[in-house]
Amino acid sequence: MAKKAVCRKCRRYGVKLFLKGEKCFSPKCPMVRRPYPPGQKRKRRMGPPSEYAKLLAEKQKLKLWYNLRERQFKNYVKEALSQRGKVEDAGHFLIKLLEMRLDNVVFRLGFAKSRRQARQLVSHGHFLVNGKPVNIPSYQLKIGDVISFRPQKLKKVAFKDLKDQLKKHTLPSHLSLDLEKLEGKIVSEPKFEEVVPPVDIYSVFEFYSK
Question: Which of 9, 18, 68, 136 is the most exposed place for a label (fewest CB within 10 A)?
Answer without folding.
Answer: 136
